[in-house]
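Mods, move this if it's the wrong board.
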Amino acid sequence: MKKLKGNDEQQYLPISAVAEILYCPRNFYYRVLEGAEEQNAHVLEGKLQEERRNERASVKREDYHQVRSIKISSDRLKLVGIMDAVEEGTDIYPVEYKKGDLAENINDDVQLCAQAMVLEEKLGRDIDRGYIYYVKSRARREVIFDQQLREMVLNTIDRGFEIIHSGEIPAPIADNRCDGCALNSRCLPFEVNYLTGSNEQREVRPVPSYNLGRVLYVDEQGAYLRKKGERVLVTKDDTEVMDIPLCNIEQVVLVGTVNISAPLIKLFLKRGTEVHFLTKGGRYNGSLQPPLGKNSVLRIVQHKAFQDEEYRLKLAKEFVRGKLANMRTLLRRHNQDKQHDELAR
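Not the wrong board. Structure tokens:
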């Protein structure tokens, strides 16, 4: 069996990230090393489907028994994660759920095979196949775990650790995969490629959304915020003032005498939504800060960097250089309308 490269004794990859390495290494870098948690409608829909499935921990049928949301790990493969489901009847095999249409997708196959290889290690038995269930199509596709697919899993894990150890952000993919990606605004794939000379196409000019900033300000004195399913309900004197989907909110600012329910506070903390409190006159009182992500790889690297004075200075310079580059990018965007010669120069 092929061994993993590098010094990975204390590092584990999320099984869910294995498919991401194949699909978009840059996305993998942001999610695993930087702990990026941006969400969009596609991500939220998948999470809601998962929450609904997990309301039943297990399902029994005449010919099989399905157990859901199983935590697994492998010291040999250096993988850790949660499997959507395992079915056991005459055989045992993993089942992965995807929200979209039925499709042949090697990334999904590699993720499912990685789950099976971890499960084999735990059970001490071979697993020759698994299934991917596509919610939109209400159909499942069988995946055979042949030697070629298993080798691809090992190579993909190797690639993941290479990205981690290099510390380099992979180049953007910059193709149709970027459409609908939750990390598009962080990655800026087409602009990065244009500014670095990777291709000759012009940078894409972003179109702002209607909910710019996604910040909810509530300054109506006596207003009350509470949870209503997957929505935030704002009321005053038992009258509904506003009803907003949670997916449209990234920050909340409460000004003056505005109250918020405990269940909604817990939900905001769980989702990583910051809540800030101001006085009626605008003075800052404090914030509800969600906990730091449980990204051990990132934390270890951060602490090591902090202890190294030379490396700290190098990082500080890169922060300044990055900020200047971003400012330049924004100026270039706005100058597409202005066409100011001095600004262009």
